[in-house]
Amino acid sequence: MGKKVIGLLGSPLTEGNTAKLLERALQGARDAGCETETIAVASMSFEACMEMMFCREHETCIMDDEMQPMYGKFKDMDSLILATPVMTMGIPGKLKSFMDRFQVFFNAKYVRQQPFITKEQKKLRRGLFICISGMKIPDVFAGAKKTAEAFFDIIDCRYWDELLINDMDTIRDVSAHPGLLDAAYKKGFALGELLKKS
Ligand SMILES: Cc1cc2nc3c(=O)[nH]c(=O)nc-3n(C[C@H](O)[C@H](O)[C@H](O)COP(=O)(O)O)c2cc1C
Question: 20 to 30 A Cα–Cα from 24, which one of 56, 132, 149, 162?
Fold first, then answer.
């Protein structure tokens, strides 16, 4: 069985530029022998964290919604490709809410000091961050990147590599720029190759 790579899509558009780049990266991972699964946050039904603190003492969240199966998937996976557009100099709100619900992992790791991810898994697990912005301005990725770094840390995926593409409002359709899609493919393939060797 190939190594498992999850592609987490933060864009509300499941066929937009972020989605196209993510799919190319996942194709690269598949071509390197991995199994992939795409999770489109926009298609999911769940609520934002309500700070009920159940997960301080329990290994899951008390809120019974579509986040529940995510905890198992994110424990089992071997790596994550997180793809998102910049929104309001950060990430889309629904993706942020998805990440906040991983307080379940935060409490296990930092409060109870019983992380879900074993040392062996941690050595393997890598995070690839794909992020695009409409504008070409200084520090346009800074907020999104900080959040991605924090999320990768909480779920014990080493921040391994990134593909940051600005000026998308000028570029418009990434399909007309094979070089950009190819860059995503190569990073996905490199990730898959690394996982295969590990
Ligand atoms: C609500 C909203 C907020 C945005 N905020 C920013 C921003 O702060 N900075 C920026 O450079 N682009 C911003 N954008 C532009 C998107 O990052 C850009 O259009 C991106 O290509 C969208 O990718 P997608 O079509 O795959 O979702 C914003 C777009 C939306 C819809």
Answer: 149
Sheet containing 35-40: order of strands: 35-40, 4-9, 79-85, 126-132, 158-165
Residue 1 has a pLDDT of: 82
Alpha helices (H) in the chain, listed in sequence order = 17-31, 68-76, 93-100, 103-106, 119-124, 142-154, 168-171, 178-197
Tell me the best of 43, 87, 95 to mutate to test the pocket of ligand 1, counting ligand atoms within 8 Å of each CB and taking the most: 87
Domain that holds residue 93: 4-197
Determine the average pLDDT of the residues in 126-145.
Answer: 98
The number of domains in the chain is 1
Q: 62 exposed, middle or buried (CB, 10 Å; 0-12, 13-18, 19+)? A: exposed
Q: What is the CATH number of the domain that holds 127?
A: 3.40.50.360
- Out of 11, 82, 133, give the residue to mutate to test ligand 1, the one with the largest number of ligand atoms within 8 Å of its CB: 133
pTM (2 d.p.): 0.98
Q: What amino acid occupies position 2?
A: G
Q: Using CA positions, which residue lies closest to atom 29 of ligand 1?
A: 87
